[in-house]
Design brief:
With about 230 residues, this protein is mostly helical. The protein folds into 2 domains: about 5-85, Arc Repressor Mutant, subunit A; about 90-230, GntR ligand-binding domain-like (Four Helix Bundle (Hemerythrin (Met), subunit A), Up-down Bundle), CATH 1.20.120.530. About 65% of the residues lie in helices and about 5% in strands. The chain has helices at about 20-35, 45-55, 60-70, 90-110, 115-130, 135-150, 155-180, 190-200, 200-230, and strands at about 45, 75, 80-85. Strands 1-3-2 form a 3-stranded antiparallel beta sheet.
Length: about 230
């Protein structure tokens, strides 16, 4: 019987890693592998195995794992250590309700401060989303589009919380597009949201955002229902 390759074998390490960049390189390599499914849910990530893979001590590995845990991509499980978190948890619907509050607040704070370059960047992400068919890139561009509209909010803690939740959505979006055989998403919601931001119509932008997030919440509810009733 042919043995399945170990998940860590999918991670390519190109040469020695500079000590001052070790944590960030390990974090980004593991993050991408989790987001695109190369490291499936439930995969245990052993510090020594990772240290051997990347050719570093355990200290930067430990720091990278802590960062990924803070992003809800890993859970620390007794006797197993760091484990890749479930794709989506049963509290996802509640999470989306919280996202609606947080992102609406960030959008309200950010819109008055957005300049032409910010709006042009958001439009660029939409154009890329219109033609992109790679699921990993679509998930990334979707996250970047939303953050391009929120990033001027003068509240770093708020933005950190939002980006953490967008990381979770990015992972689910990649999986959803792949499992549904979808090549891309309609950008109508994003275009309407950008138009409202460009017009500095904060109230309209918030309504559009809440409707957009509700659609995503419905998709997650369906996924959870199907998962509980195979």
């Amino acid at each position: 019987m042919t043995q399945k390759p170990k998940p860590l074998s999918t991670i390519q390490v190109n040469g020695p890693i500079p000590a001052d960049q070790a944590r960030s390189i390990i974090e980004e390599s593991l993050r991408e592998a989790i987001l695109d499914g190369r490291l499936p849910c439930g995969t245990a990530l052993r510090q020594q195995e990772l240290a051997d893979l990347f050719g570093v001590s355990r200290m930067p590995v430990r720091e990278a794992l802590r960062q990924l845990e803070a992003q809800s991509l890993l859970n620390v499980v007794q006797h197993k250590g760091a484990v890749v978190a479930p794709l989506i948890t049963n509290n996802a619907v509640e999470t989306y309700a919280l996202r609606s509050v947080l992102e609406a607040f960030a959008l309200r704070l950010s819109i008055p401060l957005l300049d032409d370059s910010d709006l042009a960047l958001a439009a660029q992400y939409i154009e890329q989303l219109e033609t992109e068919t790679d699921h990993a890139e679509i998930g990334k561009l979707n996250r970047l589009f939303h953050m391009s509209l929120y990033h001027k909010a003068p509240n770093s803690k708020l933005l950190d919380l939002i980006e953490r939740e967008l990381n979770e959505e990015e992972r689910f979006l990649r999986f959803h597009l792949s499992s549904m055989g979808l090549g891309k998403l309609s950008q109508d919601d994003h275009r309407a949201l950008l138009d409202a931001a460009r017009a500095k119509d904060i109230d309209k932008a918030i309504v559009l955002l809440e409707l957009h997030l509700e659609k995503a919440s419905v998709t997650m509810r369906r996924y959870l229902e199907q998962s509980s009733n195979p």
